[in-house]
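User: For my dataset I need records formatted as: sequence, then structure tokens, nothing else. Please produce one.
Assistant:
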Amino acid sequence: MKKNHLFILLLICLFGVFTKAAAQEEKSPLQISGYAEVYYLYDFNEPGNHKLPDFLYSYNRHNEVNLNLGFIKAAYAKDRVRANMALMAGTYTNANLAGEPGVFKNIFEANAGIKISKKHEVWVDAGIFPSHIGFESAIGKDCWTLTRSLLAENSPYYESGAKLSFTTDNGKVLLSALVLNGWQHIQRPEGNNTLCFGHQLTIKPNDKITLNSSSFIGNDQAGGKKLMRYFHNLYGQFQVVPKLGLTAGLDFGAQETEQGSGKYNTWVAPIIILKITPTAKTALAVRAEKYVDKNQVIIATNTRNGFQVIGYSINFDYAVTEHAVWRAELRTLSSKDNIFVRDDKPINTFVTFSTAIAVSF
């Protein structure tokens, strides 16, 4: 009987030790995570150099099995201090950070913050961040469609600078003010000595509605030239019914034609996405989008009507596990001018089929 009591006591002690260790592990201020997304894309215009048009930065290689984005991330959060560091690789990195110097090309995120209020969620963060603009990010599994929309591809994916943010106690309102090094720059353009600014306001009145307003104001020109840019992104996400979601967004931008001229070139990009989730493991998304940049402020075409494109896509997702998803998408773009190329001849259509597997851990 005594031996049984000792055995039971030993089991209780061991259970206590393991439970305490598990609890300590759960509360660890340092968390390690990762992401990898491998894709295959076929461009029916069949580019000989395997490269998609320059205004597409994600999934931009034709007829290859390739890595779009892979990263490993360390996140630290304790008391009133937080920090994030993530290093990345992939075709997204090669295309979207081509202008960054040295090892900056491989930094996905690197920032640190301090909570400056004891009672409220008021933070000051500085470093390299994911962009405060738009509803899509470089992380494919977090987006409703496999490929990124035209407005996401041609507005900042990332930014560097500092921000002051406030979140209400109930988590329904986020307000941020930002000082930035430019329009998607880690380092400022050479000869540019002006700061840029931005804001973000996110309102979530309930778990079915998200409303967001984000802006950018500043001069992004190199070589001492100064042309002010004013940009605003507005979007709403709505869970219309349990199995139907809607995202509607709009980008609007204006940039000076000449310094101090009072005249501006403008661009606009509306989008709408419907997402249907028939089952817990499957999802279907349909996208309609338009991008109008007649004066080629953001996308240069060297054609009479500039960049004026309408696009549609249909997307299917299957959640293999909680941490892995398989995706497939058919996409088409139609341009007012012949800005695409097939068999060395300019045409106005662009069609792709893509598939991807994304795994997070």
